[in-house]
Amino acid sequence: MATAKVLFLALISLVALQQALVNASFASDMKCTWGKDNCQINGDSAKLILNQWSGAAIKGTDQLIYGYIDMRIKLVPGNSAAVVTTYYTTSEMNKENDNHDEIDFEFLGNLTGNGNYYTLHTNIFVNGVGNKEEQFRMSWYDPTTDYHNYTIFWNPYMVVWSVDGNVIRVFRNYEDQGIPFPKYRPQRVYSSIWNADDWACQGGRVKTNWTQQPFVANYLNFVDNGCQYTGTNSILTCNDPSNWFFNSQYKQLTQPQLNTMNSIRNQYLVYNYCTDTKRFNGNFPPECFKSQY
Ligand SMILES: *[C@@H]1O[C@H](CO)[C@@H](O)[C@H](O)[C@H]1NC(C)=O
Ligand SMILES: *[C@@H]1O[C@H](CO)[C@@H](O)[C@H](O)[C@H]1NC(C)=O
Ligand SMILES: *[C@@H]1O[C@H](CO)[C@@H](O)[C@H](O)[C@H]1NC(C)=O
């Protein structure tokens, strides 16, 4: 009995492990797309460097419709004002007719001291339309002294942003009520570091201090696991309910997840487009009236 149970548990964790380890490496599944020596991939770690001459960017080789992308990032320490580190998924851009889908994390650097925390910026684009920003003050942990997990998960029910396994934001699928949801376009993961001193730090007032260069973001443990896009047929197969991410356990957050999320949002959410009356002049996007959890 006891052995059977142990065996059973071992089997379960093996399955979970194999699923989680699908394509788990920066070296095998990410490529440098910008930065020459400023972009360094080494086994299952990576370094993106910003200096006066260049930033850096990496791009995933897999294209997914649904699933999750997870990596551990240690952000630029010290004075990182106006240094922006991005981590996002997006479908291909079509410049003439922008209908892309995109799910974003962006880390906006800051000065040190005096409550100058990093800002964690999130957004989602569906059919080329974004304008769904939420921002958090990153003061519940120091994102620069150690690695922290950042996860993007999306399935037919919802898009979920998590930090260290704690959900911070959800965008639910209300497609049946006319609110577009990312279901049809394969997305790839990207990450980059760049200088955004025209806007990123305290509204552009604080510039990048180049005496602090190089600015280095460190990465570990890339994992992606989802429905691989192999051609237009994948739109159907990935939307087939036999896929693991259709499982009822992924339909909704659990109560503990919800509690943690609410606690983080209550304390650290500093911008929510759904409460920005001035910007939308009272005409909030329709999802602002829907429950997201
Ligand atoms: C930096 O810190 C200031 C507080 O001093 C804050 O207003 C700002 O939102 C923080 N983040 C960025 C990216 O400027
Ligand atoms: C963070 O990532 C590591 C490596 O992939 C993993 O072992 C760990 O379980 C993750 N932790 C959380 C809280 O997601
Ligand atoms: C840049 O950083 C150096 C070293 O900390 C400091 O002496 C200098 O005043 C900073 N420059 C600006 C413009 O803040």
TrEMBL record:
Modification after translation (UniProt): Contains at least one intrachain disulfide bond essential for its enzymatic activity.
Glycosylation sites recorded in the entry for this protein: N110
Main location: secreted
GO molecular function per UniProt: hydrolase activity, hydrolyzing O-glycosyl compounds; xyloglucan:xyloglucosyl transferase activity
Keywords of this entry: Apoplast, Cell wall, Cell wall biogenesis/degradation, Disulfide bond, Glycoprotein, Glycosidase, Hydrolase, Secreted, Signal, Transferase
Pfam families the record matches: Glyco_hydro_16, XET_C
GO biological process: cell wall biogenesis; cell wall organization; xyloglucan metabolic process
Compartment list: Secreted, Cell wall; Secreted, Extracellular space, Apoplast
Signal peptide range: 1-24
One GO cellular component term noted in the UniProt record for this chain: apoplast
Active-site residue list: E102, E106
Domain GH16: 16-219
Main enzyme class: transferase
InterPro entries noted in UniProt: Beta-glucanase-like (IPR000757), Beta-glucanase/XTH (IPR044791), ConA-like_dom_sf (IPR013320), GH16_AS (IPR008263), XET_C (IPR010713), XTH (IPR016455)
EC number(s) from the headed UniProt entry: 2.4.1.207
Function: Catalyzes xyloglucan endohydrolysis (XEH) and/or endotransglycosylation (XET). Cleaves and religates xyloglucan polymers, an essential constituent of the primary cell wall, and thereby participates in cell wall construction of growing tissues.
Family recorded in the similarity comment: Belongs to the glycosyl hydrolase 16 family.
Protein known as: Xyloglucan endotransglucosylase/hydrolase
